[in-house]
C-alpha cells in the first residue's frame, strides 16, 4: 500500500528510525481502524520484493517494520529474507489472525476481538500490544498476557479517538498491574507518518 521512512511511534522500539512497509489487505475489520483504506488489497499496486527492498536501502536506518492492513495475509518469507540479507532487522505488527510466515527479529502481536489470533503465534510474540477502547479491554488484555512467553513485553495503548477517556484508566491499571507499560502513538503527537 505504501512505504515510508519515519520514527517508530509505538511499543518497545518507539523512537527508532524505521522504514515502514504497509501491505494492503485486512480481513479483521476493527470498527475503529485508522487505515481502512488498507483493507482491499486489490486497490494497491503489486511491487516486487526487489523494488521494495531497493527503496528501503536508500535510507540509512536498518530497521524495517512490516505492517498493514494485516501483513500475514501474505507469505512474507521472501520479503523478510531479502530484507535480512540487506542488513535489516525485521519487525512485524500483526493481529496474528492469519498463519505466520517470514523470519522475524521482533513480533509485535496486537490481538483484535474481531478476529482472534491463531493460538500458535501467541507464544512467539516478543511484544503484546493491546489497544484499549473501553474498560472491558483490560480483561481481554489479560487473556492474552496469560498465554504469551514470560519474556514478552506487555503494552496497553489507548485507542486514539478514545484517548481522553481511556488513558486515565490505563494509567491507574498500570499502577496496579506494573507488569504492563504504556504505549502511546507518539508519531501522531509529533505529526510524522
Ligand atoms: S487489524 Fe489493523 S488494519 Fe486490520 S482492521 Fe484492525 S486495526 Fe485495521
UniProtKB/TrEMBL annotation:
Binds 1 [4Fe-4S] cluster. The cluster is coordinated with 3 cysteines and an exchangeable S-adenosyl-L-methionine. Residues 13-193 form the Radical SAM core domain. [4Fe-4S] cluster binds at residues 26, 30, 33. PROSITE patterns: RADICAL_SAM (PS51918). GO terms for molecular function: 4 iron, 4 sulfur cluster binding; carbon-nitrogen lyase activity; magnesium ion binding; S-adenosyl-L-methionine binding. S-adenosyl-L-methionine binds at residues 32-34, 69, 110-112. The gene is queE. Pathway: Purine metabolism; 7-cyano-7-deazaguanine biosynthesis. It is an enzyme of class 4 (lyase). Belongs to the radical SAM superfamily. 7-carboxy-7-deazaguanine synthase family. Homodimer. Keywords: 4Fe-4S, Iron, Iron-sulfur, Lyase, Magnesium, Metal-binding, Queuosine biosynthesis, S-adenosyl-L-methionine. GO terms for biological process: tRNA queuosine(34) biosynthetic process. It catalyses: 6-carboxy-5,6,7,8-tetrahydropterin + H(+) = 7-carboxy-7-carbaguanine + NH4(+). Its cofactor is Mg(2+); [4Fe-4S] cluster; S-adenosyl-L-methionine. It comes from the Bacteria. This is 7-carboxy-7-deazaguanine synthase. Its EC number is 4.3.99.3. Catalyzes the complex heterocyclic radical-mediated conversion of 6-carboxy-5,6,7,8-tetrahydropterin (CPH4) to 7-carboxy-7-deazaguanine (CDG), a step common to the biosynthetic pathways of all 7-deazapurine-containing compounds. Pfam families: Radical_SAM (PF04055). PANTHER family: 7-CARBOXY-7-DEAZAGUANINE SYNTHASE. Substrate binds at residues 7-9, 22, 67, 193. InterPro entries: 7-CO-7-deazaguanine_synth-like (IPR024924), Aldolase_TIM (IPR013785), rSAM (IPR007197), rSAM_sf (IPR058240).
Amino acid at each position: 500500500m505504501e512505504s515510508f521512512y519515519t520514527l517508530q511511534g509505538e511499543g518497545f522500539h518507539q523512537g527508532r528510525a524505521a522504514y515502514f512497509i504497509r501491505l494492503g489487505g485486512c480481513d479483521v475489520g476493527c470498527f475503529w481502524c485508522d487505515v481502512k483504506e488498507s483493507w482491499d488489497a486489490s486497490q494497491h499496486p503489486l511491487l516486487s520484493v526487489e523494488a521494495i527492498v531497493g527503496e528501503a536501502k536508500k535510507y540509512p536506518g536498518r530497521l524495517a517494520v512490516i505492517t498493514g492492513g494485516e501483513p500475514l495475509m501474505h507469505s512474507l518469507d521472501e520479503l523478510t529474507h531479502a530484507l535480512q540479507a540487506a542488513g535489516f532487522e525485521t519487525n512485524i505488527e500483526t493481529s496474528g489472525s492469519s498463519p505466520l510466515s517470514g523470519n522475524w527479529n521482533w513480533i509485535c502481536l496486537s490481538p483484535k476481538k474481531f478476529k482472534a489470533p491463531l493460538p500458535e503465534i501467541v507464544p512467539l510474540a516478543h511484544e503484546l500490544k493491546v489497544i484499549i477502547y473501553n474498560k472491558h479491554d483490560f480483561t481481554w488484555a489479560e487473556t492474552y498476557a496469560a498465554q504469551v512467553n514470560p519474556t514478552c513485553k506487555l503494552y496497553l495503548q489507548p485507542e486514539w479517538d478514545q484517548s481522553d477517556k481511556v488513558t486515565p484508566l490505563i494509567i491507574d491499571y498500570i499502577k496496579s498491574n506494573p507488569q504492563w507499560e504504556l504505549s502511546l502513538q507518539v508519531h501522531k503527537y509529533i505529526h510524522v507518518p
